[in-house]
Amino acid sequence: MPFGPRLDRPSAVGDEGRPRETSLGIVAVTVVALALAAGFAVGRPTFLTGFALVSGLAAAGVALLDRDTLGEKIVGHLCFLPGAILLGVLVALYPGGQTLLIGGFALALLGTASCWADVASDEPLESALSQGILSYVFGLCWLFGSGIVLAGLFLCWQLATGTTAASNPTAAAIGVLAVVGLVAAAVRVSLRAFPIVQLTPRDRRDAVRATLGRAKRALTLTALGGVGTALVSLVFLATSSPALGLVPGAATVVGALASVYVLGPLLAVGTLALLAAGVAVGARQITRQFDERKTRTVAGAIAGAGYVVALVFGVVPQTAVLVLLSPILFLVAVLLAPLAVFVVVGLALIAVRLDVFPDRAGGPALAAAGLVIAAIGADSAGLPAPLVFACVAGALVVWDAGSFGLGLTAELGHRPETRRLELYHGVFAVGIGAVAVLGATGLYALRTTALGPAGNTAAMTAAVVGTLVLAALLRG
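and the corresponding structure tokens:
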């Protein structure tokens, strides 16, 4: 039975992407145990392990973005970018000045999740970066497009209410002409989205196509005539000319046309036409067969719309006070947070391609590096010295167990049963780590007893010495 879920798809033999399950289980238990111990030390036992859910979301999102189907890519988008942003925000906003400690364990948990999903390598990182940027750009397009649409609807509403309330028949007539022109333009644009000719029987398509062409020309002329006449007629409002006031009965006719009972249905027709056109275009795009490039584009577009919906209905109501007090700060945070994620992923990708960061062993390396950073943070925060030693030793155990599992995967694949071998190696590594921690703790206690409080610098010095000795024992 596997220790955890699989999001990668390895081959039978020779796939070097993900360590074996038992080795990864040892890595996960080590990281979680240290996170729990650090949580108890800071007085919040389960807070650090809560990062595991967010880290898992981000790693699962990267793995799903490497899949081929549209649905999996959409779910990957909605997991990757929000999960990474939330992880960074939780680390940055943690109170108490313990950023190194919190950030180190967040990296360790993220590295562990990356091991399970096999995403800390070149291709998944590149795919996540390119598709994440695509969904972010689409999100901005949806956001600004929605703002433009809302502004247009507001202006149309103001035009309609101003027309119905106008006491000057000339002003009311101009408003009626503008509304008719805009509604005709909306219907004309929406006709392009409907497959009217394609849904018509073949023997009638020529006649329907001709009728549709005449209707489009009529709508175009109506739109141009209505809006153009309204704009030209604005000159009558800038002069003292009575205009329609000179025409007998014109005020009565214009008053009837400018009523709610006429303008309301007209605006409803235009709005419903645009909504129906949007639904038709969306349904056509979703049900169409895509190649890889189109699938990525459509998934990014849908994910961008999802970001906007989550922002409007989820984030904004929760941060209404911030929006009212500092809307610029809020917008900057919303716009720059994804860019920070892209910068971090891009730097990780560059590090992998320059061989600064191991390609196939990226997950264990990230988890080990996170524990080393957590050890530095624990020392800076004045946490007990045994915890500092345990974090350093745990980093080496994580790297050793992860690299051993990767070696087995490269040699044997995922099918052969190697649990006993992995358990033997893992227990041996954990045992050496425990002995090293106990020895370093004893030496530190002896030093503080003989010389008085030695400070945190002595703890880190002993931890570095223990790191070198433990590395020689584990890798020798």
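(Above: one complete record from the training split.) Residues 400 and 475 are 8 Å apart (CA to CA).
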